[in-house]
Design goal:
Elements lengths: L12 E4 L6 H12 L2 E4 H9 L3 H8 L1 H16 L4 E4 L8 H10 L1 E6 L2 H5 L2 H4 L11 H15 L4 E4 L5 H19 L5
Parallel strand pairs: 1-3, 1-4, 2-3, 4-5
Helix pairs in contact: 1-9, 2-4, 3-4, 4-5
The structure holds adenosine-5'-triphosphate (ATP), (3R,4S,5R)-3,4,5-trihydroxycyclohex-1-ENE-1-carboxylic acid and magnesium ion (MG).
Amino acid sequence: MRNFGLSIREKSIVCIGFMGVGKTTVGKLLAQKLYRNFVDIDAEIEKEFAMPIPQIFEHYGEQVFRAKEKELIEKYSQQPLNIISVGGGAFLQKEIQDICMNNCIVLFLDISWESWKDRIHILTDNRPLLKGRSLEDIKSLFLERQNSYSLNHSKFQIDNFKAEEAADYLADALKLSWEIHAPQPK
Ligand SMILES: Nc1ncnc2c1ncn2[C@@H]1O[C@H](COP(=O)(O)OP(=O)(O)OP(=O)(O)O)[C@@H](O)[C@H]1O
Ligand SMILES: O=C(O)C1=C[C@@H](O)[C@@H](O)[C@H](O)C1
Ligand SMILES: [Mg+2]
């Protein structure tokens, strides 16, 4: 379904990108700066199942997790004025890509492998798809996933930015683009 009713300033913004790139951290800050509601899809899934993601994968399996991920993204992406951070695997589902591209502004937070791999030690515990895998395996996953993120409205290379700096930059860039797209007075 395409949400024709919302102007560009009202559309929700969806942050996509690889696990640990900073979608949750930057998304939350961006929501504060733009006075918008923040929705973290991973956190919403955890609330629904009342358990952390590794346990959801263990008890119900990845397919059940992916179905709930789709259901929740469908719900929040059609509402106005949300900043939505999705999980790193959400854009593997074509239906999710379509829903987000048609209803929202899709913002790809990109990072190089060189920068990302320095963060790995803080990421493995809560992310079942990283746990127990070799660095080589994780690099393959990182590279494989890039294709799914190529569908976006805007890309931000985050390597050299602290989260706060990235959110400041993105808030300014979004406000500028809204001004450019604002209807001109007659
Ligand atoms: N710009 C940044 N520079 C350095 N560290 C960062 C930056 N952004 C986030 N981090 C750190 O990286 C870790 C992962 O960030 P975050 O949870 O926001 O990633 P994510 O993209 O939401 O991951 P996931 O796809 O698993 O939900 C956190 O510990 C966070 O503090
Ligand atoms: O990249 C992925 O497939 C995932 C990323 C996380 O955000 C969680 O959604 C989950 O751990 C799966
Ligand atoms: Mg996250």
